Amino acid sequence: MIVVVLFVVFAGRGAEKEPLSEAGKAAQILRNSGPEPKAPLGYLFNPRDTPEFAWQDGGLVETFGVMKIEEVAWFDADGKRFGKPDHGGRWVAVVRSQLPDGRTVMRSRTLFARPEGFFLLLPEALGMQLEETDDAASTPLATHRDEVRRLTMRPLLEAINGGDPRGARLAAALHEARQEDAEQRLRYGVEERARHCELKARMAYLDRGVRELPPPRRIKEPAAAELHPETESPLAEEERAELDRICQGWADESGAAFTSLVAHRSGILHHRAFTPLDAEGSPINLEYRADIFSITKSISGMLATRFLDAGFFELDDPVSVLLPGFGQHPGHTPTFRQCLRHQSGQTGHGSWGGVGNVWFDHFVLNGINALQPGERHYSGDGFDLVGSAMQLATGETTTRLLHAGFFEPLGLPAMPWNQMGASARPTVFQLAVLGQILANGGRYGSLEFFSRQSFEQLLPTVYDDLASPDPDNKNHYYGLGIRWVREHRDDDGKLLFSRRTLGHGSFSHSVFLIDLEAQVVIAQVREKNSGKIDAKWFPLFLREVSGTVNRR
């Protein structure tokens, strides 16, 4: 039996902070439209009855004229290209269209062809069934089992057979899970986004093929510092008790559970999970995950540094070196540096699904004439544009690239994320390991993730549009998704940590601080911001950590 757990995420379009220009309005209409298979076949069809596609209007014709579909490329579940579908199973249609002004617009869709002999797809035919209940159980579920089954299966039956795109994806997933190579499919992450990503890259680079991101290098020099979760450096009992007291008080007053890790010179001083005493349910443990919001940008910057180190691009290259469609718009195309430093001209976070939308770069390209690189707006969309370039160059999702590039070589589990500017959900140990890599200048144990030279390019530098930058102003310096943290001081105004302390803020008040000189790594993972309560407890926590480190 196959147990299916469905997570449905609705990614909203990034809101514009200023009124849209005419070019912006036109781009919005184009982004809100897309090619859809015509009825009655729709997303679920019979083999050899190839669906035809047509663009939804929604003001498209009035704004641009008639959209012409030039080509539909069909790929089966094994990635083989066909002129049209001729057998059952998953199919991906990559639709290439052209606007009257000559611009190319690309989109892709997942469809499902009914296996031979099936007119109506039943969930049981795909290997899914409702769990049987114990007849002896004195519960309403046992008493009304048949009714529950009907109510549960009916909407699923309608979703699979009713032409809904989500139903087609569900049918494809269940069908493939029954195949002999299901384990291999799961191991290599061949899910919806990964499949579209691979096919997009293959079509874009037919002349040279995609490139692999090299694995971290093995080094023969003395190993760099590592964190080991099963050991902690000895702390005086009163020091540990005080850190526990502060963190538990913070959790109790804020009502927010969190995990915390403090390391000094690779020795873990404090690694604990804190749950409010009055919280309902089970307390969290050290495997707890939560959205760290904008700290995600620092992780994205580290992944970009791996690509920089491998020679995929230089920071001042335009993104068109990996995203060919942007090459026709040099005045509106940002550089990689601009994208990773909030200077791409984009203004949103997760717009149009972010990098989780395989065609995100085309959505940006659809409104390229409204883009003004060099303008500074705090935004995650520039990071997603770099993520799109990484995906297109390698044919791999950024989720897989991050796992293969950092966590997998260290034997750590994968980290959920679907946008480059927010959404990462690490454990506190995973976040601290990334911090230790930065503290080591790009190394961890016997692995070098990027060279010292590449690490230096990641570090914050001044924005060149500032005549008199303030070294202590966090808004005047920025690196690749990371900044200098110089605002935490004691009562006498003295910095708690060195001036070479890296980090990033977070909407949830998660914490990511790395003192490069003192070799201190501080990480916290929490799910919500508690405003003034955080402002009360966070300084107390940092002062205690600083004092503990200084006494060692």
Protein architecture, described:
With 552 residues, the chain is of the alpha+beta class. It has 3 domains: 1-32 and 293-424, Beta-lactamase (3-Layer(aba) Sandwich); 34-187, Immunoglobulin-like (Sandwich); 219-292 and 426-552, Beta-lactamase, CATH 3.40.710.10. Helices cover 32% and strands 15% of the residues. The protein contains 16 helices and 18 strands. It has helices at 22-31, 60-64, 140-143, 145-161, 165-177, 182-187, 192-204, 237-254, 295-309, 336-340, 360-366, 381-394, 398-407, 428-439, 452-458, 532-550, and strands spanning 35-37, 44-45, 53-55, 68-76, 81-82, 89-98, 104-113, 217-218, 258-264, 267-274, 443-444, 447-448, 461-462, 477-478, 483-484, 501-503, 511-515, 520-526. The strands form 5 sheets. The protein has a 6-stranded antiparallel β-sheet with strand order 10-9-18-17-16-15, sandwiched between helices. Strand 9 (258-264) and strand 10 form a beta hairpin. Helix 9 packs parallel to helix 12 (381-394). The longest helix is centred in the last third of the chain and has 19 residues, at 532-550. The termini are far apart. Residues 1-17, 132-138 and 182-190 have low confidence and may be disordered.
